[in-house]
User: Which sequence fits this backbone?
């Protein structure tokens, strides 16, 4: 199990992201620390899950969705990305290999899901 999950969505309004999260989790709290940042506290099976939604996280068009918890319903970033794509219908990217404390993973190796399909690619 990963200690956290992070995905990036392309040209997807934050309101749509919050709606998706509200369908999967109980939304306990929502704050806006800045014009580009929305923080939500979610609940699932008695676990609270803090999530940060940061617009323009990678260039102007990508929004980061970071689940700061190992208690999400997904085992890894790719499963979360697939779920997000099926609901949001916008391109989703995530780290291909997931998180490892040690390892020789390529930081530019990513997984992309869009209306053309899905698979690994280099994002640099």
Assistant:
């Amino acid at each position: 199990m990963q200690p956290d999950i992070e995905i990036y969505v392309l040209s997807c309004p934050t309101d749509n992201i919050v709606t998706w999260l509200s369908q999967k989790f109980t939304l306990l709290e929502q704050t806006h620390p800045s014009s580009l940042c929305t923080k939500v506290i979610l609940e699932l099976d008695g676990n609270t899950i803090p999530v940060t939604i940061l617009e323009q996280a990678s260039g102007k068009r990508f929004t980061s969705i970071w689940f700061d918890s190992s208690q999400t319903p997904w085992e890894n970033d790719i499963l979360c990305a697939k779920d997000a794509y099926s609901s949001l219908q916008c391109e989703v990217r995530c780290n291909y290999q997931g998180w490892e404390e040690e390892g020789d993973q390529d930081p530019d190796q990513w997984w992309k899901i869009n209306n053309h399909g899905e698979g690994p690619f280099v994002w640099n």
